[in-house]
Structures are given as structure tokens and as C-alpha cells.
Amino acid sequence: MGSAAPLRILILTYYWPPAGGPGVQRWLKLSKYLAERGAEVEVVTVDPSQATWPVRDEDLLHEVHPSVRVHHTATHEPFAAYLRATGRKEVPYSGFANEVSRPGLRQRAAKWIRGNLFLPDARKGWNRHALKKAEAIYARSAPDVLITTGPPHSTHLVGAALKKRFGIQWIADFRDPWTDIYYYDSLYPTPLARRMDRRMEQSVLEEADHVLASSPYLKELLQGKTGRREGFHFFPNGYDPADLKEPAAAVNTHHLVYTGTLTQLYPIHSVLKALEQIDGQTKWTIDLYGKADDTTRRSLADSACSFQAHGFVPHQEAVQQMRSADVLLLVIPDQQPNKGIIPGKIFEYMGSGRPVLGIGPTDCDAAQLIRQSGSGAFFGYEDVNGIRRFLESPARTTGKVPVAHYSRPAQAEALEAIVRRS
After folding, report:
1. Helix (H, G, I), strand (E, B) or coil at 321
2. How many helices (H) and strands (E) does the chain have?
């Protein structure tokens, strides 16, 4: 393809506005800046009236670039049966943050069914509808490149089918691991289910022209599952400068903000102990914008700090709350494998200019990112003294801004370069 010709890009993603949460941000933002660079972008996604998204954010509909053509399809998924079996009113959040810490027999049985009978995941019922729509698009206009993004990783199977039929250039984007996701064992997969899942994963990794991984560790992990070395790229999440154009809110002193999922897998006991130790001098407040399990909420409510849980809020409001924080809290789940987890919010944390308090393995990818960017400090799960000293320090401010290649416009440029080199 000529370098001057506009790229024709087809993106298959289950998460798209009005879906909310972190899964939607990556390709919503990249599609916007790809379109601004002149690309002709089409998106195949699920009909919002049939989707089983745990979070909705209607405001994100206003961020879809006007030139991006969006196709909605039907889907058939087992979540209605799952809700009946477990007696719950909402589909599971990432990491099962909205499920009890010790699931009962019905919940364990439902998880077993999800982990063994709905491979690779419970949203595979969307595949045949997405495939039919994508086939019609290829018959009409033959895009230059197909991009599939997971989770849900079942979406990559649509990419494999299209690759086989049309011989297309295909990029498989891994926002999270597949068979190595930290909560994989919570689905109680049998040895047979594990083998089947790994076989599908390996097939995708070997057939895709390019594989994008959201962390260096994940890139190496995925590379190790194949006999090839080329075509794998560390492609991080990022921040959108447009989200930071509004004037920053006034910073509230002794104010700690956390956004996203928070369960017992995300240990915060050392943070609470550190706050308890300094409570005689200053009273801290903690604001949670996201979803926490019941045990974690009780721990926060019983702590020395003043705690408020706000639930999920529109993305733009979450960014503004980040900018008003004295300290932003980042916690890596304490369950292996976790070295390669780089939550998408870390880049918005960095973009906010507020200091980040990171908790988790001190040698993980997220810890290195925070140190290299000068965005804050990172401590082990049990390092109460280090956390306390950081919170007490008057010199927590970062003094740095994120390097340019973590911005969404720069990432769109990098993605275009990958496509054009092929």
C-alpha cells in the first residue's frame, strides 16, 4: 500500500460506547486519533440493548469521532442463565468485584460452567454475528487491516476466521492475558478445558500478523507460547490530552483517590495501617470511584480515615477527581501472575500530574513505569513504613509529565507505522 493512501481499518471490539470502564478506552481513543490522521475507520461491536456490560457510560458516546462508522450486531450470551443460577442482579465485574468473597455452591457451580462450557469465554455468542457483519464489510470495501481486541478473547477467533477466508492483515490486541489472567483459576477450569483454551490462544498468536501486548511482561509471555519472535509489540495504554484540557480542580490536601475495581485481591491493609499511624497528626479522606467488594468496603469504613464510595462515574468526571487528589492510589492484585499488569488508569494518573502511590510487587512493570516517569513511588504489600513516609512527605509532587509516546495521538501514529511496515 502506498504511504500516502489513507488506511482503511476495521476494528472488532465488544466494548464500545455506551459501555463504560477501562476496556472501552483503548480503541475509542485510538480510533479517534487514527481518524484525525486520515484513516477510514469502521467498528463492529455489539448492540447496546443486548450487550452484557457491567458498566455503562453514556457520555462516552460524545467521544466517538464523527467519521468513524460503527456497526452494531446482535448477540446470544448465557449471562441471563448465569444471573438466574446465582441469584444476582448484575453481570460480574472484572476480578468479580461485585461477588461475595467466599462464593456459595451456586456461584461456584456457575463459575465452573463459565470456565469449562463457555470456552474461551461467555461472550463467544457474539462471534457469529460479528463474523457475518465483518464478512459483509470485507466483501464491500476490503479494509487494509483488521484489529481484534480482547478481552473477551473470543473476539480473536473471529479474526482467525476472517484471516483464513480473506488472507487479510490481522492485528490481535491483548489488553490482558488470556489463559494467564490473574483470576483464571477462579473459574475452576479442568485440565481438558485448560488444554482447549491454550490451544485456541496459541492458534491466535501464531496466525495473527501482529500481536499487541499492553505490558512488556505480557509481550514476553505471549511470545513464549509460539515458535516465532517477530510481530510482537509492547503497546501500552495511554492518556488523552483532550481529557486534560479543562482547568484542573483545586487539590484537596490529605485526600487519597482510587478509581476502578478494588477487592481482597488488591491488598490495601498497609495503606490503612500507615494512615492509622499518622491519624493523630492529620485526618485523611479516601474516595473510591469504582466497585469494591463488601469486605474491602467494610475495611475502609472501619479505618482511621474518612471513606466515601461513589460507584462508577462518567469517565470525564473520574479524570477530574484524579486531578483533585493529593495522592492517587494504584494497587496491583496480589495473585500470580501479576508482574505484567499495567492498569490503564495509570496513564491517566500520570497525565493528571498528581503523585501516585503504587502498591504491589516492587519489580513489576507498573512499578518500573512509575519510577521511570517520576510519577510517584511504589511499595511492597507489607511496607507500612515506606507508605507512611511517602504520605507524610511534603515533597510528593512529581515535577514531571508523562513522556509523549504515552499520549493517544502518538500511539495512533505508532500503530499506523506498524500497519504500513507490513
Report:
1. helix
2. 14, 13
Q: Where are the domains of the chain?
A: 8-238+407-421, 241-392
CA distances from 145 to 25, 137, 139, 226, 335 (A): 20, 12, 14, 22, 36
CATH class of 8-238+407-421: alpha beta
Greatest CA separation for the chain: 69
Instruction: Name the least confident of 2-6, 92-96, 172-176, 381-385.
Output: 92-96
Q: What percent of the chain has pLDDT over 70?
A: 90
Closest C-alpha among 148, 155, 18, 192 to residue 75: 155
- Using the Cα atoms of residue 87, residue 93, residue 96 and residue 99 in order, give the sign of their dihedral: negative
Other CB atoms within 10 Å distance of the CB of residue 410: 15
pLDDT score, position 400: 56
User: What strands, in cross-sheet order, belong to the sheet with 327-331?
Assistant: 306-309, 285-292, 255-262, 327-331, 356-359, 376-379
CB neighbourhood size of 73 (10 A) = 17
C-alpha distances out from residue 54 to 91, 103, 151, 318, Å:
6, 19, 13, 17
Query: How far is Cα 107 from Cα 188, in angstroms, rounded to an integer?
Result: 12
Query: Of 116, 210, 219, nearest to 159 (Cα)?
Result: 210
Q: For the domain with range 241-392, which CATH number is right: 3.30.230.70, 3.40.50.2000, 3.40.50.300, 3.40.228.10? A: 3.40.50.2000
Task: Report yes or no on whether pTM surpasses 0.85.
Answer: yes
